[in-house]
Amino acid sequence: MVEVMKKMMMSDPKWQALLRLFSDKQVAIRVLRKQREIRMRPESIQMFEEGYDPATHDGLVKFMDIYERVDKKTMEECGLSDYVKDVHLFKILKVIFPLYKNDPEIKAELEYTPEYTCAIGSLFETLNIGSAPPDINLVSIETKQEVALSQFHSRKPRPLVIIASSIS
Questions:
Q1: What pLDDT does 77 receive?
Q2: How far is the C-alpha of 131 from the C-alpha of 36, rounded, in Å?
Q3: SS3 of residue 123 by DSSP
Q4: Is 86 helix (H, G, I), strand (E, B) or coil?
Q5: Distance between CA atoms of 160 and 165, rounded to whole angstroms?
Q6: β-pairing verdict for 137-139 and 146-148
Q7: DSSP class of residue 82?
Q8: How far apart are CA 99 and CA 120, in angstroms?
Q9: Which residue, 45, 88, 94, 119, has most beta carbons within 10 Å?
Q10: Which range, of 12-21, 56-65, 121-130, averages the lowest pLDDT?
């Protein structure tokens, strides 16, 4: 999936324009700050709370739709809406993260969304067999309660295997 996405980004002139735009670190920081501001607005919080339910069959689709709307609003309010007019499945972090994945300033801008940063980061990083997994929260479909992965399997002498699939 990563290679397909990279090829798409490198071959599509619209994605190339976004890569050039975000290669200016100050632009990337300005857009990330605007994205944070928009995500923290009451209407955005309400949109996520009402529009996303991980237990539903189309939960992931709704989640991605909400993020796409936030990203497009971010670019509009930054005066950069021309860059996203015809780009489908646009995700600001999918473009910025690989450009600056080891940059402390960019990482600091992303600290308000550790779960999203982890998810986006996993698109560009591969864990080796036997390496420690990121400590993510798992959500029970029945109870909708969250349990940290580290708490789910602590102090057991056998390996933990997680079989996951898309909820879309």
A1: 94
A2: 31
A3: helix
A4: coil
A5: 16
A6: antiparallel
A7: G
A8: 13
A9: 94
A10: 121-130
